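Section 4.2 – Deliverable D4.2 (structural model, holo form)

The reporting period included a commitment to supply a predicted holo structure for the target in complex with NAP. Inputs used:
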Amino acid sequence: MDGRQPAAAASGVEYGSVATTPKRALVTGITGQDGSYLAECLLGLGYEVHGLVRRSSTFGTQRIEHLYRDIHDEHRPLVLHHGDMADGSGLARLVRAIRPDEVYNLAAQSHVRVSFDQPAYTADVTGLGALRLLEAIRDCQETSGRGIRFYQASSSEMFGTAAESPQRETTPFHPRSPYGAAKVYAHCITVNYRESYGLHASCGILFNHESPRRGETFVTRKITRAAARIKVGLQQKLYLGNLDARRDWGFAGDYVEAMRLMLQQPEADDYVVATGETHSVREFCEQAFGRLGLDFRDFVAIDPRYFRPAEVDLLQGCAEKARARLGWRPRVSFSELVAMMVDADVELAERERALVAMGHAAFPQHGQSGPSRP
Ligand code: NAP
Ligand code: F7E
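Output (structure tokens):
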């Protein structure tokens, strides 16, 4: 035993999930971009999926609406539970009640710019939230003797100003935001629980991944949404921050497959998931507006409020280990991703324009209402 992988048998735990049918998964962050794609993927494979949902005064389940069935339907493969990453005893109760084979921890305050305004909250939910869930799993596993496999959503933001490029599993972390720091804590405590208690706990170090379901305040979706609204005449300008930042952008639908594959391996480990390509925010604008026959320079203006106190200038990942051990590779290219997002947002903008023509208000946009939008 090398200290990294104590045998599960040493703690008397059996990982029965290989033979269990159907497998039962608990997904935190199921209402988010990745949660919705992961739920689709797991349900498609016959899993029974349980999702953690925050209580809110309005519905926040739009991304999984198409997967959900009424609670009175007896054969519901998707079951939602109220819970919060800040509430450790609630998480422990849920894990005990569900007794999942696999737990995917995707819940987080995931916006880097917002983490500078809410650093303690981000540390609590994004960092300590992972610890609370790991504790719940450890307790449940010790009591029941049944193994629970755990996935932690680690992030390329942990590399920050990385000492090398491309970044790989062995690249040292140097986070540049409270979000990145919180993710480093969650990553390290996951590794620690693997080493200390023999938990089958893996971390996916995912580089930026996007889709038509991406939150509208992340830069890719902000750009494709604005380009589409400009095209149909609903918007005149798009205000952005640093156009020189470079990111390794992939498609979220591809990336959730890597998460599941990690939990099917005999031993837990950590994997970088990335395309290996890097593009600037400026290039993304060029392609997105270009797809609609527009020149982004006519519409994009810089607003310093979108600059960050500390920036991550360049991210580019090496997913060689995921390719070799998991057989994973990205399927959607950068230009296909931009096209997919722009096309979906044109459809949305056309629906919005039709509603406006009928006298309804336009959907709220960045910086036009509420707190200054990141
Ligand atoms: P997202 O769309 O922002 O979704 C975040 C999810 O977390 C939402 O379901 C959200 O619920 C939930 N959540 C937030 N605070 C919570 C709390 N206190 N208790 C319970 N749930 C809470 O993020 P994503 O893009 O799907 O990313 C999924 C995970 O991967 C996150 O952990 C993110 O940090 C990480 N990650 C993302 C990327 C990327 O490029 N997308 C890359 C690397 C890592 P509401 O719907 O109620 O807000
Ligand atoms: O910014 C620049 C910004 O907010 C990308 C999260 O999913 O990926 C995401 O974090 C870049 C940055 O993503 C605007 O300064 C310019 O350099 O889309 P973003 P992010 O910060 O990379 C990582 C891997 C995660 O783990 C996170 O959860 O774009 N940028 N102008 C802008 N960014 C935003 N949001 N808005 C702008 O107006």
